[in-house]
Amino acid sequence: MKVFVTGASGWIGSAVTDELVAHEHEVIGLVRSDAAAERVRAAGAEPLLGGLDDLDSLRRGAEQADAVVHLANKHDWSNPAESNRAERVAVETLTEVLAGSDRRFALASGTAFWPGRLVTENDAVPFSGPDAPRGGTEALALDAVDRGVHSVALRFAPTVHGEGGEHGFIPQIVAAARRNGAAGYIGDGAARWSAVHRRDAATAVRLALSAAPAGFRAHVVGEQEVATRDIAAAIAESLGLPTVSVDPADAAEHFGFIGAFWAIDMPASNAITRETLGWTPTHPKLLEDIAAGHYLHEA
What we know:
- The chain has 299 residues and is of the alpha/beta class.
- It has two domains: 2-159 and 196-221, NAD(P)-binding Rossmann-like Domain (Rossmann fold, 3-Layer(aba) Sandwich), CATH 3.40.50; 161-195 and 224-291, UDP-galactose 4-epimerase, domain 1.
- It is 39% helix and 20% strand.
- It is built from twelve helices and twelve strands.
- The strands form three sheets. A seven-stranded parallel beta sheet has the order 3-2-1-4-5-6-10, with helices on both faces. Strands 7-9-11 form a three-stranded mixed beta sheet. Strands 8-12 form a two-stranded parallel sheet.
- Strand 1 (2-6), helix 1 (11-22) and strand 2 form a beta-alpha-beta unit.
- InterPro entries: Epimerase_deHydtase, NAD(P)-bd_dom_sf, NAD(P)-dependent_oxidoreduct.
- It comes from Schumannella soli.
- Residues 3-213 form the NAD-dependent epimerase/dehydratase domain.
- GO terms for molecular function: aldehyde dehydrogenase (NAD+) activity.
């Protein structure tokens, strides 16, 4: 299968590219720089220079491929409206190319949309439209099934970890621990996050391309729930710092922008995904990766 991967040189995308190439798929990887192109080429894939705002590059990649894995996102926390706009236009463009072909379209999404309870694959996102988080693109992509696109939502856990450390939420918590001299959790630390190792995530993406039915919501979740106080304790042990409970009213000052997310209880099930895809996560868990020192780098 020839697969067009956006974000192919990124944290998740590079693992997905490696996984697909290792299983004898051809990969066209969307990249934004010559340096990223070299990394993708070294992985055995064909780089395509472009980006989310270069709609022609998205069209060229999708037109050449048997399947599309859309992982790229601007992740501009200072301007989420722009990230959402770019994401929506990109998905509109990709689904227009794929319409009527029944080719597979696997779209990165998330599980953090129903705080306070275990979210399952049967739960539809409660929002849609261009002003919704991520531009409402999960609903947009799944609606495209009616237009002949074999769409699958890839709902990634909020932390995708691994050797080298992720570049997302957990490093921000580590950075806050360094600044404050203590690894913090909010309130009683009972808020739960799901997690997945990037190599397990890559395997799930590959299996979703071959085994997921159209309209499926895959939960790319290795661990369904890890208490934030346990994550903070692991960070504290890794850095040689104490742990501290932070009052919710002080979360923004202590953690920065990540404090708004660190307080959210957002566990997610993976049972249906494991059964449907025949997927069994085998790589280290989040607390093991923290203990191994993968988050000791500066964020």
